[in-house]
Request: fold
Amino acid sequence: MATATLSGYEIHVDEEGFMTDPAEWSEELAGFLAHQIGIDELTEDHWKVIRFLREDHATEGTTATLRRVSTLGGIPVKQLYALFPKKPAKKMAYIAGLPKPKGCV
Amino acid sequence: MKHLVVLGAGTAGTMTVNKLRPRLDPAEWRITVVDQDETHLYQPGLLFIPFGIYDAGDVVKTRREFVPRGVELVVAGIDRIDPDESRVIFEDGRTLDYDYLVIATGTHPRPDQTPGLTDEALHDTIHDFYTLEGAVALAEALETWDGGRLVVNIMEMPIKCPVAPLEFVFLADWFFHERGMRDRVELVFATPLSEAFTKPIAARHLAHLLDEKKIAVETDFYVEQVDPERNVLVSYDERELGYDLLVTVPVNMGAEYIARSGLGDELNHVPVDKHTFLSRDYDNVFALGDAADLPTSKAGSVVHFSVDVFTDNFLRHVESLPMLERFDGHANCFIESGFGKGLLIDFNYDTEPLPGKYPLPGIGPFSLLEETEVNHWGKLLFRWTYWHVLLEGRPLPLPSRMLMAGKRRVEP
Reply:
């Protein structure tokens, strides 16, 4: 596990850059993380997803799948692809400061 | 008199009642196992049916054969569980009260979850092999197919036996070779994952095999819909993948009564403690096997290792003693790779599949993550073991905990 410094924040990350300690995350940091993967502005729709992921992780201890965000968070998968293009499951976890989704076994 | 009710007389439910009946005093404990039908299906055998290696008769027996004396088998559809009243309500209105409940009704393919995967489309140019009807229909289709592009796709994870779709493409490669038509078949494996398998080291070994066998892989392919008019799979990121023959692995979900009972997650799998299988919401409800939301493979081997841990824990739990055994997520899967060979993988929650020997370190006879003939024979012999040893709860000389002995650590 490595540490990285992003816009003055010191964070713990895995080898792919996913944050490993959700407590180090902040809303401001989310903006910087998003910028790093090519999402320049976090809209209210992005925030709806990020907040769901954060709250779900706090109770479940795992990063929600696209289906879970869609079924329980009420944000359709199609919209998740529009908000976080190409690899939404990984991108939204990255911005929300949560571990990389395990891809289910 | 206390009453243990087990829902599901498949691999997990049958093993559970066979393990527990001898250890629960008949004067104190009544045990009932419930299933919606009489037929026990050897699910690992379904893979072989499309290629004519097994037929339907090889994979079915009656459930009663494996239900031990002193356990009542009830054949009925379940409407719902009322966990606050500790009661099971059947579709015909009957009820069954329990002191302890084990949910073991598995997970099932749900083509209805994907737009376009209609009943009319299935069994024409679209097939599946996770049901007996599907596997038999696919055998007939392959018998007369004259070539083209065969796409094998996974709709969504998790699915039961996550290596089976890969085995299917490996066996298809062999099957078309044997029939002298491999040059007329393009094989494509499409997965929503970013690699061929969920675990990186095994994924690398399998990617190498896929490449060697000239099987194309389409990754990150999360299907939004099937268009059976145009014979095309459409992904959420708007890629299209055409097929002449589609072998699909539909979304897998737990039984609907679990949703009706308010006991399931978004896929109707029951959230449990991953080390003890105890429901996170009810102290007298457990879920075993594919029905649970365990973060390991949905596979018979997981059930086998789980039930060993569960039995000891259950006997303590009913005495209000702490559950001492902790399940480590141990899974162990043969992977058929065609041409009379196979691989074996052995892993748990924390350790991904590694190369080495199993079960005896340095000796085997099985080789981990390596194609051998012995592994293939192990897979074929397993059917006998399943019917004659495992279901009846007889011990196999394999520890339930995964061991590092015999494995070689590899740089990730």
